[in-house]
Amino acid sequence: MTTLYVVGIGPGGREHLTGKALDVIRACPVIVGYTPYIELIRDLLDGKTVLTSGMTQEVERCQQAMAQVKAGHDTCLISSGDPGLYGMAGVALEVAEGIDVEIVPGVSAMFSAAAEVGAPLMHDCCTISLSDRLTPFAVIEQRLRHAAQADFVITLYNPKSRGRPDHLEYAVEILRQYKSPYTPVALVKRAGRPDAEYQLTTLANIAYEWVDMQTVVIIGNSQTYVKDGRMITPRGYRLA
Amino acid sequence: MTTLYVVGIGPGGREHLTGKALDVIRACPVIVGYTPYIELIRDLLDGKTVLTSGMTQEVERCQQAMAQVKAGHDTCLISSGDPGLYGMAGVALEVAEGIDVEIVPGVSAMFSAAAEVGAPLMHDCCTISLSDRLTPFAVIEQRLRHAAQADFVITLYNPKSRGRPDHLEYAVEILRQYKSPYTPVALVKRAGRPDAEYQLTTLANIAYEWVDMQTVVIIGNSQTYVKDGRMITPRGYRLA
Q1: Dist. CA B183–CA B194, nearest whole Å
Q2: A128: which residues sit within 8 A by CB, 6+ positions away?
Q3: Tens of pLDDT, residues A177-197
Q4: Which of B38, B95, B152, B211 could join B62 in a cystine, given CB atoms 3.0 to 4.6 angstroms apart?
């Protein structure tokens, strides 16, 4: 049966692609995706029909991919990281009608960012996107408050956007009502790529000017510490 | 430099292993891990020194691996899913002294489980382990309350254990104080393996007897719905 594969390519470095993702990309004659992600796998696409589109065009991209499947072509819809977290899997299934859709998981940005700096997640954790394009900021703010009180390790996606460059400062101000200023924080850019960069800092000392739209921000829980330059969250709580 | 690689092998099916994980496993002469995970990659281990150990022996396993690195052997410490979430990365870095440690990320169980049932995560989400072996149950209970109030998609790990077979019932009882009984729930076993199985149900209708220790439980947020047998969380909130 002709299939729409929604494929997570991981953080971008070829080495972090799964065997399944690689096989599916190789097998499909049509590849659809956001231009910068397509560039990351460009060398795999010789002889294929490649349909690229810009940011915020998720729905159009899915419709384009669906039309290709209906025309009889197995099609890959490319997502960075894992397609099921802030990726293309949801939109694809929302839009899909009468076609076969398979989700191919990948290494999410939260895990490639974590691997760069040590083991900051490890225990109960949450992810919050600071983008208010589709979610009211009041909902995001409530999530930050509950996440802090739950003592989750918190991963923030989309910490900055053109519309609101101070989202991260505002989020940290909320978190600081509940969390120690000494809480370890990792800022990670281009995780899982050869040019990855990161800073380890604390909740009180974030270099906001260094953070860009693609930076992943990981904020420790009450037990997180730094040892030999690695950020570590222990598996549990030391029982007194 | 001789290195300890902490390697995430993903959900278990060979196809979900990343290229990097495969390369590192092939290159290292010594492989250390929990017996059932070693079995998943047994065909890659011919001619290698393989050191297996049982459940709850995480610290001993890391010390064993570290001793091998100090003896001059590149060593893989195997973790299922991603090593940085409820995996071996944290313990390895806590125990490591004077050796080089590299974390190799993998596809986490939450994402392979999500891919089996659709796109249930998609938006802000959290993971909570119901195991109280290292975390007081009062902390877990507070996390459940905050996670529900934050309207996170909630993934539960370790929903049952020998010591407390009714953990999941109790957790759902807490969540139902805040969430609709009609909230979609996915129960997923052996995600990402050929014999994967799942049930789609609701918060009020979970088949507790079907859940075992390794089942991943995904509980939707207020926007999650089921369409054509797939569980979908939209990317955002419909703005009124």
Answers
A1: 28
A2: A140, A143, A144, A147, A154, A155, A156, A157, A171, B124
A3: 999 999 999 999 999 999 999
A4: B95
Give the dihedral sign, CA A218/A219/A220/A226: positive
Work out whether strand A216-219 and strand A153-157 pair parallel, antiparallel, or are unpaired: antiparallel
- Put simply, the answer to whether B15 touches A18 (Cβ < 8 Å) is yes
Number of H helices, E strands in chain A: 7, 13
Our CA-based measurement puts residue B8 at a distance from the nearest CA of chain A, in whole angstroms, of 10
Q: Where are the alpha helices (DSSP H) in B96-232?
A: 109-117, 137-149, 167-175
**Which of B43, B93, B117, B225 best probes binding to A when mutated, by most A CB atoms within 10 angstroms?**
B93
CB contact under 8 A, A124 and B121: no
Its ipTM equals: 0.96
pTM: 0.96
Q: How is residue B215 written in tokens? A: 């089942």
State both tokens at B79: 């973790």
pLDDT of residue B238: 64
The pLDDT > 90 percentage for chain A reads 88
